[in-house]
Specification:
single chain; 213 residues; mainly beta; 5-stranded antiparallel sheet; 35% strand
């Protein structure tokens, strides 16, 4: 009767147990590396300026009537501009005793208050802004397109209000003071003895989301 040694079997089994045990041991030896981050977003913003350094007004308006000349008898209309005291992102214009083809130019400045570069690309016209009882409404107001396809101004039955095209799609940075002009022309359908009101905003978009080319 032959005797079969169990020693090799025992050794193999023991080796397997050791390897399995070592595998479990190695599997429990690990380290997690964690990465944490902080993202702080910037801001987009601008405000119309009331004053410049030295106390001068940051805006003024002129009309196409003759002043201080032999034609001064024609100087009957008046135009002025103000910044909304409750919202410095809104400016409004007042025209008095106007008539068809009365034209005015209002120059103004605004400051970039946000931290992110922006493109000027939109003129937001606000018809009938702060209208009083009895004021007439501007009718059929439609945007005027700049060469870039962005809004340059607005045309209504009674008037046109248009930004100068020079700054459209320009890029500005925090702290920049930007000059611009608004041209206003009264049109023939404007009624006699009637008051129309409007305001406007300048639309600024974060530079890499701008519609500008």
């Amino acid at each position: 009767m032959k005797h079969i040694s169990v020693f090799p079997f025992v050794m193999i089994t023991a080796a397997l147990v050791i390897l399995v045990t070592m595998g479990i041991g190695y599997g429990l030896w690990f380290e997690n590396l964690s990465l944490a981050g902080t993202i702080e977003t910037g801001t987009v913003g601008a405000e119309f300026l009331e004053q410049l350094d030295g106390g001068l007004l940051a805006y003024e308006c002129h009309d196409n009537e003759y002043e201080d000349s032999s034609f001064a008898w024609k100087d009957v209309g008046d135009v002025s501009m103000e910044i909304d005291p409750n919202d410095p992102t809104i400016a409004y214009v007042t025209v008095e005793n106007a008539y068809p083809l009365y034209a005015a130019d209002c120059s103004f400045k605004y400051k970039i208050t946000g931290s992110v570069p922006v493109h000027l690309e939109w003129f937001e016209f606000i018809p009938d802004y702060n209208a009083a009882p009895g004021d007439a409404s501007l009718t059929n107001c439609q945007p005027l397109q700049a060469s870039s396809g962005t809004s340059l101004g607005t045309t209504c039955d009674e008037l046109n209000a248009t930004l100068s095209d020079g700054a459209i799609c320009s890029q500005y940075h925090s702290g920049d003071v930007v000059p611009n002009n608004l041209q206003i022309v009264i049109k023939q359908p404007a009624e006699e003895g009637t008051r129309y009101t409007f305001a406007f905003k300048i639309r600024l978009n974060q530079y890499n989301e701008s519609a500008c080319p």
